[in-house]
Amino acid sequence: IICFASVQKTQPLLVLTLGLLMLFGIVAQGTTGALKQHFKRATLPAHKHWSRPSSARNTHVSMAALRYPTPIKLEPKGTATGAVIFLHGLGDTASGWADIGPQLQADLKHTRFIFPTAPLRPITLNFGMSMTGWYDINSLEAINMKEDAEGLKESQRYVEELVQAQVSSGIPSERVIVGGFSQGGATALMMLRSNIKVGGIIGLSAYLPLAGENFLSEQNKATPILLGHGDADQVVFYEYGKQSAEKLSAAGADVKFSTFPGMPHSACAPELLEVKEFIKKHLNE
Fold first, then answer.
1. Which residues of the chain have pLDDT under 70?
2. What gap in Å lies between CA 13 and CA 237, rounded to an integer?
3. Which of 117, 68, 88 has its CA nearest to residue 180?
4. Catalytically annotated residues
5. How far apart are CA 95 and CA 34, in angstroms?
């Protein structure tokens, strides 16, 4: 199966500096039938050495100062007996992915979808200027170097809060799947170290963050994981996703890694079909 992504409509990032125009190009969102267009094609020169510029401003931010907008919540046609929390990528918002909810709910009649929006924070890759992000990022070339552990763990805390809200509504945490795209997918993978048992993890065009730490808790060592990645990804390189899957597998995790030939930093219909089948299987829909 070859996945090609085309642009249907364009929505700018909250802050589009010259640096991000060079790094990410255009962000396109929307759907063409079942095809999700969330396209961040990087136009990197051959050397690809993108890291913090010497003139970048200080990007440290107090975690207590972060403000989380109210998530978009899509209720199913039937009684909600399971939930999916899906996190967007860097510079996006909940609206960028909320349109996949109705597509998937057509066959998931008892699954609630929650699409949160990340807080505004200074991003080193964006020359220290603020945009929506689950954590700071320094470099695309060495994505696991100089990681923002504090930001990642704060976002994990927030996702745990969202899971607990579903528990309070009557849905067991074991029937909550956490997923995300790109930076959102990396944040979703942080839930593997949580002491809250979840029903599954989905990471699209993502990678395993803080891989030098213990990333599998006793509660989630058997939690099923679905990773999908395009082999033409120029932003989160395909090798990062593949190596993450290998590291998870070596640690004993239940992980499936799917390659989508020709797909850049995006998502396509066959990938979303795998996402739907993963949710159906693990929420018994």
1. 1-61
2. 21
3. 88
4. 182, 233, 265
5. 17
